[in-house]
Specification:
The protein has 13 helices and 2 strands, in the order ααααββααααααααα. With 360 residues, it is mainly alpha-helical. The chain has one domain. The protein has a two-stranded antiparallel ribbon. Helix 1 runs antiparallel to helix 2 and helix 6 runs parallel beside helix 13. The protein is globular, with a radius of gyration of 20 Å. The two termini are 37 Å apart.
Length: 360
């Protein structure tokens, strides 16, 4: 919305600043933080009244988690409020990539909200049908993938780019739509599995948002993309303010989610933010790099897949408990040790992922 003022820079030189993506990204970050910080207490108080017993705690979970009973969930509403206000204010609303990311974020957030609602009202940790939820997620992700292909350029729009190799492109044709939808849905559910400890998911999400904000800015700038020899994708630079909005809103949420958490993110936030990250990775042609930058989420998801597969095939469990952050709790790590050490892993993986921009 405010980005539109940049068109009047010729008459009002002061408005020229609104044309700069870097300025709007920083402003978006600040706006997101302020919105969540100011309205967070009211949202938490309202959710606490409406939810009563709060988010149900897994009966088979670590014993230390039972003291968290009564903590409200759906904290993703706080994050999404700050994110949406910032995005609508500072992003270029004529950009199709922006609306595609907003579609996925809001759509996945709505799915997560309904899941959280069922958990709270029924007081169990099952939510609604996993199969039906996946169908809805794939429907939204497929629509987003089609929009991204439509916004792209010819065969490049349906091609898969490879890190470390500057010229290799694999044209998947319309199979790319299915692949892109899988990336978005996989990213959303991997983040959802990671959200199990106070502050565990939100910081890696902010790290990934910062990394992809930089990637989006570079990929959308013809000079920088040519210099670093990465593929130029027209229009993706406008996704940087969205990443800034996530960082700001995430910082505001972390203020209240820091141990002991006053509110949990819930599926409302984890599905929305995971889906958003996956969509930006698809739009910028860095789907494979997402597996590196979001490596922590991949590890969490793989731990669940391995655990389930092993138990069904052999009757034995590989981990003491899955997802893997609970395994380390069972080993005796304190919650804060698990969280901070996983943050460190997320930081290092993001640096590795960003290194692919130069190592070509």
């Amino acid at each position: 919305m405010i980005a539109y003022l940049g068109q009047f820079a010729a008459d009002f030189p002061l408005f020229n600043v609104f044309r700069y993506i870097t300025f709007r990204t920083g402003a978006s970050m600040i706006t997101g933080f302020i919105v969540v910080f100011l309205f967070g207490p009211a949202i938490i108080a309202n959710l606490r009244i409406r939810q009563g017993k709060g988010q149900p705690i897994r009966a088979d979970g670590p014993q230390t988690h039972f003291k968290k009973a009564g903590t409200p969930t759906m904290g993703g509403l706080m994050i999404l409020s700050g994110f949406l206000v910032s995005a609508l204010l500072w992003a270029d609303l004529t950009n199709l990539y922006v609306w595609t990311v907003l579609l996925v974020t809001v759509g996945f957030g709505a799915i997560g909200f309904y899941d959280d609602y069922l958990k709270v009202t029924k007081q169990n940790d099952k939510g609604f049908s996993g199969k039906f939820r996946l169908v809805l997620e794939f429907l939204i992700a497929t629509i987003a993938a089609v929009l991204i292909v439509y916004a792209g350029n010819g065969s490049f729009a349906t091609s898969l780019a490879f890190p470390f190799v500057k010229s290799l492109l694999l044209d998947l044709g319309w199979f790319y739509v299915g692949f892109a939808a899988f990336v978005v849905v996989g990213s959303a559910n991997a983040v959802n599995l990671t959200d199990g400890l106070d502050g565990l998911a939100i910081v890696p999400i902010m790290i990934a948002a910062a990394a992809f904000g930089l990637i989006a800015y570079i990929a959308g700038n013809v000079n920088f993309s040519n210099y670093l020899q990465i593929h130029y994708v027209v229009g993706t630079g406008e996704l940087a303010p969205l990443c800034g909005a996530v960082i700001g809103a995430g910082l505001g949420f972390l203020w209240f989610n820091a141990p002991p958490a006053a509110i949990f993110m819930g599926d409302t936030g984890s599905l929305a933010l995971g889906g958003m990250t996956g969509t930006i990775a698809v739009a910028t042609k860095h789907e494979l790099v997402l597996a590196i930058i979001g490596g922590l989420f991949v590890i969490e998801a793989l731990s669940v897949i391995i655990q389930v597969a092993s138990f069904k095939l052999t009757g034995k469990r590989v981990f003491l408990m899955a997802p893997i952050h609970h395994h380390f709790e069972k080993l005796g790590w304190t919650e804060s040790q698990v969280v901070v050490r996983f943050w460190i892993i997320a930081f290092m993986l993001a640096f590795v992922g960003l290194s692919t921009l130069k190592l070509r």
